[in-house]
Amino acid sequence: MFDTLTDRLSGTLRSLRGRGRMRPDDVDEVLAEIRVALLEADVNVRVVRRFTERVRERSIGGEVTASLTPGQQVTKIVNDELVAILGGNPLNLQFAPKPPTVVLLAGLQGSGKTTAAAKLAQWCKSQGRNPLLVGADLQRPAAVEQLRTLAHSIDTEVWSEPGDPVACAAGGLAHARQAGRDVLIVDTAGRLAIDAELMGEVARISDAVEPHYTFLVVDSMVGQDAVSTAEAFHATLEVDGIILTKLDGDARGGAALSVAEVVGRPVAFASVGEKIDDFEQFHPDRMASRILGMGDVLTLIEKAEQVYEEAEAEAAAQRLVEGTFTLDDFVDQLRQLRKMGNLQSIVQMMPGISDQVRDAEIDDDRIALAEAIVLSMTPAERVSPEIIDASRRARIAAGSGTSSAQVSNLLKQFTQMRKMMGGMMGLGSKRRPAGRKAARKRGRGAGRTGGRAGGGGRVSPKGSGPKTGSKPLSDAIDWDALDLKLPGR
After folding, report:
1. Angstrom distance (rounded) from CA 474 to CA 489
2. What's phi and psi for 438, nearest 5 deg?
């Protein structure tokens, strides 16, 4: 969603590197580019004005850190102010000491309230809670059935009764207390636009259930309309936080950068995909880091920790560096990687990724096809891929729906990756030579023995380090070269 904004801001801030001084004119020039980038991203003009004013005041007002260059200082200030307009500190959901903790969801029709309710219930279950969903959206046809379908996939109960939405919500609260549920999530009706009837109904439901948290569900793709919607709901309900949906979309993302600043309430959660697990707590500092193209290592680590068992991961890493990593291990790693979510979003969380790699289209179907190639091999072929000859490649290609060239490319790159890791293990085990002459002898294969031992020599033998132009480990598998495409695509 923030790709264009990320390209503009990171490019602007990159131009500041190496500057020894930052004059007021230089700051104004940078802020002019940032202002245009934010407005093109459909950020509310009031938010843009406040943001640029605060950045200029801090940049010109003598805020200097001795350890940073002027360019780095401006980058830090921009990052800090981005965090501020995204809400500052993350909202940590505090569960009521006397259950149930009541959460009311409100928003316009089509913003994704019903799906967000089910995703929030799944998140609560991951926190060890026992939620109950209330389908109080009796206005939209099949809204309750949609909620039941989603709830069935996460094994969660739904309470709903036809008639009055207020009575339905109150009945759900009574049922939650009776059934011992510690979280109650109320899905309310929406409209295509703000009207008095909608606001009156939501206000009456709020009075009936007395929610601990009222979350406004906002579609990240609506742009400027999100601001007026948030202001109207906040005036009626006293919103505690915001849930952003469709954050994985390709719109300009102005809503995400505007709503929290205008309403004065933090973004609590973000829906980052279509799957029920694609729902995460919103961290303003991490989102600001992503927008500035600096990655999001903490979220990446959290996703990996949810998927990978520590003992299994260590064992796989050990087999990789020892050269005993098989194609079975390779498939296991692909499956774990796929569980972490969309590959495009994972790549964007990695720091130091070039713009070309970050913006590249990554097709998740390529993982499935690589898996199909490996699964078309016999157990012996997966352990010893060197035994695969032309006839075996043809059989594997036929079984996986690919070509012999694609099979060859996968095997070649897997072999290169295994050799690379084995070489890295070998380098780590080599002892440091006694001195310059010893290093010269080992590096060149010739030389005189003896000589003084002492400093000044190479730490590692000449020629043993990584070669110029060699691929980093992250690029060991070249997905583009594999040309893995499903039939008909």
Report:
1. 26
2. -65, -40
Predicted confidence pLDDT, tens digits, the chain (489 residues): 566 677 777 777 777 666 666 677 878 888 888 888 888 887 888 888 888 888 888 877 665 444 456 667 777 888 888 888 888 888 888 899 888 999 999 988 888 899 999 999 999 999 999 999 999 988 888 889 999 999 999 999 999 998 899 999 999 999 999 999 999 999 998 877 777 888 888 899 999 999 999 999 988 877 677 788 888 888 888 889 899 888 776 656 677 678 888 888 888 998 888 888 889 888 887 777 777 765 555 565 656 666 556 666 667 666 665 667 788 888 887 777 777 666 666 666 665 555 555 555 556 677 788 888 999 999 899 888 889 999 999 999 999 898 999 999 888 888 877 776 655 444 444 433 444 444 444 444 444 444 433 433 333 333 444 444 444 444 455 545 555 444 444
Reading phi first (left if > 0) and then psi (alpha if -120 to 50, else beta), residue 64 is in beta
Tokens linked to 56: 């200029």
User: How far is residue 170's CA from residue 158's CA, in Å, rounded to a whole number?
Assistant: 14
